[in-house]
Amino acid sequence: MNTHNITHPEAASEFLRNKERVQWHDETLWFVRYKRDKVVNEIPEWEQLRELASQIKDHTLSRLDEYLQEFEAAAISNGVTVHWAADAAEHNRIVHGIMAKHGAQKIVKSKSMLTEECHLNEYLEAQGIEVVDTDLGERIVQLNKEMPSHIVLPAIHIKKEEVGEIFHQHLGTEKGASDPLYLALAAREHLRQKFLAADIAITGVNFAVAETGAIVVCTNEGNADLGAHLAKVHIACMGIEKLIPRTEHLSVFLRLLARNATGQNITAYSSHFRKPAAGSEMHIVIVDNGRTTQLGREAFRNSLKCIRCGACLNTCPVYRRSGGHSYHNATAGPIGAILAPNLDMRKNADLPFASTLCGSCTDVCPVKIDIHNQLYQWRQVLTKEGYVPAAKTASMKVMAGVLSSPARYTFAGKWARKLLRWFPSLAMNKKLNPWARQRDLPEPPKESFREWYKKNSREL
Amino acid sequence: MRVALFIPCYVDQFYPKVAIATLRLLQHLGLDVHYPMQQTCCGQPMANGGFEHLTGSCNSNFIKAFAGYDYIVSPSGSCVLHIKDHLHDDKQEAAASTIRHKVYELCEFLTDIVQVKSIKASFPQKVALHQGCHGQRGLKLASSTETVVPYFSKPVQLLKMVEGLELVDLDRPDECCGFGGTFCVTEEAVSSAMGLSRIDDYTKHQATVITGTDMSCLMHQEGLIKRKKLPFEVMHISEVLASGLAF
Ligand code: SF4
Hints:
The complex is a heterodimer of chains A (460) and B (247). With 460 residues, chain A is α/β, with parallel strands linked by helices.
């Protein structure tokens, strides 16, 4: 839910209060990145693979309309029903419509960031329909009435002891139990009943092949397969950017995805769905929800290349220390900070500033999205459109004035140093100067370099 | 070869000794070094804050100050990257483009242009190198751990020439310290947490001196170190490379 009323810095400092949790969050995700580094280094042609993936995606985006039509025609001829949704609301209505047609009351869903983006669960629950997320991590956050905090590891912010407590409350496991195997078995038992009782299964889509109309869903738990094969109706929800032209291109992306995501060679299940089994139905809902707008924004177009591996989150030193919820958006981390302002600039104006522009995200991205450059570009757009505080604009104007003139700069520098020496307490005011909360200021020297140089340059 | 020194504004004001070390080091290598008095700031704080549109007069001032030199050298990867990527001026775009191509961070200038093979410096200490992100990933001063490319590091190449210097290995050799320009103030909590993690890494590996190619990253870490009264010395790489040199 987009219920945020606090900004990223506020939410982050809240998260940072629990030092132990932050350290554990940081170390756990760093460990995932470390594993990732190890396996990608086993592939000497890794950089060529990235380049190839990036080019395939560039090409697909440049002819997206054609590939979408090709995909639709192929899917229809496979016996699949294809729906088009312009936005989240239409997506939810379509899914609900299919359910109503079948009188369905119980849904199992495998992890899909798109349905999260569209707030499908809340929508369906409001209509009295039970939706069960079947990915273990997703189920944990769902029981805890939260959003996922990571696109691949949705419950990464929750410790196993807390999972034990959540399961104790909702699934009746023993109080105080935190053994992962015990908890996983309990979840499996619980989910199995849900799978068997479900009328309809919803899955996401990792890749949609234009040539064949087939979709591929990657999971580690096999929950997408189990859901889709047990239920009579399978609804697959996909964003328009999930397309790739041909089956042969899958080999490139399947090699990249799991390695970059978690350091596995490949996901445990890469399930291909092409046509409904005899006696059952398969639906594909193709969703825009702002994606064509992003396609039209030259500077941000290639954010649509994202294959949701989550690596930019794992590597992001800000994400690791602020937690996924601080991004108040379905997709957190650096890529989320690019996608969110496209949906709502006012609500998400803080996110492109939640970065040091260190560039680690750009280097880790398997499809070579220039993530940190796009964050820089968003800052320019948001500022020009007036989505930053007026005080910041005013102070930046003063700064620009001082820094554009050698005389004003020399004068201001001299007085700033003097003031700092005379009234150090002013600068050390923790309220007025956030720098000073945990850091000392550099000791101002008597002489700037230019003053020194003026005096000494003759002898140099 | 006429070399212009580009000294970032905060180095000029707060760390004149870093500028002096840079100047001495370049002169020691026999270069004809000048400090154009007209220079102020590269405009990066405004641009990264989203106010690139306010950097126009900063840019034209920068171009006026630095036009006509063979090379422009700066002890700051971050500011150099900003100039390389963002220095533009409608009225003198040709001059802007020349500058964008002639500006170098100190270490890359020494390894790639001057091609120094030895430095007579001596610095018998256990040193941790903080690789500033803008230098490392932006200017490609060193390979990054995310990419699958042969290892290289221009700062390390230079530090290895210093007699007695022992470079310690770090658990996270290229993690950001959290300075990030205005980020260090607007996201104070995350910024400080990031800096403190770096410092834990140095402590764990028993470094006594922290060095780096960007004084801004070092200023932030020094601030945390001083507040915690930790026994580290913080020095810019120019100071390390110039230590023990006879002037
Ligand atoms: S932006 Fe790149 S690194 Fe981040 S989730 Fe998408 S594909 Fe992965």
